[in-house]
Amino acid sequence: MTQIKFFGEGLPDPLVCLRNGVFPGLVPLVNSYLANMNVDADTHCTIQRYLKLIQKRASGELLTTAAWLRKEVTSHPEYKHDAVITQSINYDLLRKIDNIVSNDASCPELLGQCVSSKTTDTIPAAVAKAEKCSTTNC
């Protein structure tokens, strides 16, 4: 697996998780912020999944998007190790990406094992009604 060079040697893990005792890390900061916010359980769980994805990428457990793309291109049967991405390589890569995005194919080395979410784009009717009542004194 390719390592990311980030502020010197190694992976950006110390910036994401508490490691050196100086900077608390992104994950503890976000968790502290969430603890003080009124966030529903589904949203909290979804944010925790994203944080876990960031942690796994920072530690090198999962590939970054760039590393995954590089691996896909360099392992393609038509790739000649000349830094040229042919139309065929590009087409196959885009088809694979489309299959991943549409959930027709999994990609655990990039996204981990579980990629579904319970969070929806709509506000539940009860929450919308409660918010409306709190602003109009009903």
From TrEMBL:
Pathway, per record: Sulfur metabolism; glutathione biosynthesis; glutathione from L-cysteine and L-glutamate: step 1/2
GO cellular component, one term: glutamate-cysteine ligase complex
Annotated keywords: ATP-binding, Glutathione biosynthesis, Ligase, Nucleotide-binding
A Pfam family of this chain: GCS
GO molecular function, one term: glutamate-cysteine ligase activity
ATP-binding keyword on record: yes
Coiled-coil blocks: none
Reactions it catalyzes: L-cysteine + L-glutamate + ATP = gamma-L-glutamyl-L-cysteine + ADP + phosphate + H(+)
Gene3D superfamilies reported in the protein's UniProt record: 1.10.8.960
This enzyme's EC code(s): 6.3.2.2
GO biological process: glutathione biosynthetic process
Record carries keyword Iron: no
EC category: ligase
UniProt record similarity statement: Belongs to the glutamate--cysteine ligase type 3 family.
Protein name, UniProt field: Glutamate--cysteine ligase
Source organism of this protein record: Solenopsis invicta (Red imported fire ant)
